[in-house]
Design a protein that fits this description.
Blueprint: E1 16-25, E2 29-34, E3 40-45, E4 48-56, H1 75-83, H2 87-93
Antiparallel strand pairs: 1-4, 2-3
Helix pairs in contact: 1-2
Length: 97
Amino acid sequence: QLACPLDLGCHSVSKLTINHIQVNQAPKGRRRTYRAHGRINAFMSNPCHIELFAEAREVNIAKAAAPAEAQKRSVRVLRRLVNGASATKAVAAVPAQ
C-alpha cells in the first residue's frame, strides 16, 4: 500500500526505493474465547506498527559484474588435494573431458 503522491514529483510507484523500515510493538489486545463446559480462556493478540519510508531516486545503479567461473574439479582431484598431493599432479593425473 505504498502511495506515490504527485506533489512530491513522483509519477510511478515503481521508481520508489525503500530507505527505512521500522517495526514497533503496539498495545496488546485482550479478548475472551468461550469454551465448552462454561470455561473462558484469554484470546490475546500481539499487533505491531510497521513504518516504511520510500523516496523517488533517479540514479540508475549499475549491475555488478558476474564473478569469474570457478574452476570445476572432479571428486578424484579434490581427494588428492585433501590428501596432500600438489594441484598440478592431481590435475595432470585426470584425463581431459
